[in-house]
Amino acid sequence: xxxxxxxxxxxxxxxAHRTELVGLTREELTEFAVANNMRPFRGxxxxxxxxxxxxxxxxxxxxxxxxxxxxxxxxxxxxTLSVKREERSTDGTRKFLFELADRKTVETVLIPxxxxxxxxxxxxxxxxxxxxxxxxxxxGLERHLTAGEIVDQLLSVQRLTxxxxxxxxxxxxxxxxxxxxxxxxxxxxxxxxxxxGLSARRVTVSTSGLVPKIHDLIHAQGVRFALxxxxxxxxxxxxxxxxxxxxxxxxxxxxxxxxxxxxxxRDMGFVEYVLLGGVNDTVADAHRLANLLRRVRCxxxxxxxxxxxxxxxxxxxxxxxxxxxxxxxxxxxxxFTRKARGDDISAACGQLxxxxxx
Length: 358
Ligand code: SAH
Ligand code: SF4
Known about the structure:
Largest sheet: 10 strands, mixed
Helix content: 25-40%
Bound molecules: S-adenosyl-L-homocysteine, iron/sulfur cluster
CATH topology of the largest domain: TIM Barrel
Number of domains: 2
Shape: globular
Distance between the termini: 56 Å
Structural class: alpha/beta
Number of helices: 11
């Protein structure tokens, strides 16, 4: 007589070994299909269902033979983040608090502008870099996100809103280049034209300045995106103070890495510059910045400081921001001043953290 116990025992380890598919590249999904005795095009079909159509149920993959769908359901999972809270700003910005499998949380911000839908992705729970003006820093680093958890932020937001994202910026919680492999893989998935299909020009990875990783990126094969460096100061004295990572990789090395990046990859770089009132927003700073970037092909984004609890900085005056911008324009740079988006729901740059009070 058959007992139920062996079945239960048999099922448990099998479930534990199921492979999570979100975050795997097209090549990896193809290998997965082949390793499970299926034809390679099953991998391609998974790319289309999971990434292009956002389907998270094998039963719905109607062009895959039923026997293979059932097999996939036994050996694989398609995870979805659970949304714990959503907040909407009066300017249309939406902030999602996602819970991960281990109950840690991250925030993802959707910024609509005309036809454009930009998603600001988190790459870590917390951050190890300790920048003095940033709320995420106060949490320290809890852990890296997997490539799947990064990609899933986009799939989940698309599912929740019914809208397709046009741009992705790695500017949420965490330092992307500190989680290098997962971020590179996530970019590959986001820009695969048979899947999510974002244009590489519309994917931007922002770094606080992990110089050796920027050099690694120069040689990274099969992945394209725009690189942004958060410079945020024009002297090592000030940058050491506001961004402790500068003590390891000072301004000269960082600017050199960005210059090499834009030269070797022929990609446009971006320089992000958070203006902290009275700290790095003077006329002398603007001239120093223009000199520093003389040999770098880049555009400059000025970000007026957004207030953060526990940080002892002030926003720059409107006049200081405009003077700063005019000096850089006169020096021939293209300069944009970033509007604070979603600051009424703490969704603006530097205001993201693990759990918000409500
Ligand atoms: N860790 C990466 C990306 C996430 S931070 C980085 O530092 O580049 C995204 C951007 O927000 C960075 O340019 C950072 O300098 C900026 N930022 C952080 N705190 C801010 C604040 N309080 N006000 C305005 N911008 C801030
Ligand atoms: Fe980390 Fe970027 Fe915040 Fe610095 S600004 S603490 S690198 S998330």
